[in-house]
Here is the input.
Amino acid sequence: MIRTVIVDDEPLARRKIRALLDKHRQISVEGECGNGADAIRMIRDKSPDLIFLDVQMPAVDGFGVIEALERDELPAIIFVTAFDKYAVDAFSARALDFLLKPFNRSRFEQALQRAKELISDRAQREQVNERLLELIANAKRDAPYLDRLVVKTNGKHVFLRAREVQWIEAEGDYARLHLFKRSYLIREKMHSLESKLDPARFVRIHRSTIVNVDENGGEELSLSVLNGLGNIHIVPLESALPAEKDPAVPGHPSPLHTSR
Here is the structure.
């Protein structure tokens, strides 16, 4: 029996895949879900032999699911994608199987047969997964800046959109990511993290502090920093500048200032 999980954020797409699998008695659909976070939990819980994995999903996409799994947790994978030239070219270049929406029964059966061959040939499956990991590594290298961060807390992986992080502070060899009502600790030094974040959004205002000026630019943000920097106030640019065109009028505060 081939234990299978279906992951797609479109209910209609999940129903279509399940219906196409109905005639295959050796396939057992162990579960389905509509987002990447649930997919990670389900894959770890069910240990499927095969997953149908949507590439484009909100928050955690298909590649994010793969990134969160250990190498030995990776089953055979059939990617499902709407037209995405980058994804299609990348899959084709590395001989990775995928279903391009909308797909027909013939194409589905072809991909399924290929997956069955990988399931029965572990060495070949590991080779394919190696190419998949290479694809993801290249995609991360080619991307100019991080758009999401993966943190581990209480034994679980949490996916954060980079733009949701309000500010970051150094804690030795770690960095603490501060969101609106919570914070997360990650093992990464500030200089490394700074190089991966968009400088148009994240500004290092102190050796131990990075601030998301885009997130906080519309309102005042006060940070109590225990590193001698004092209280930081970030205020909207339009409210910080004087009415005159020359912003360097004595007596007016700058857009970013500190107080002790």
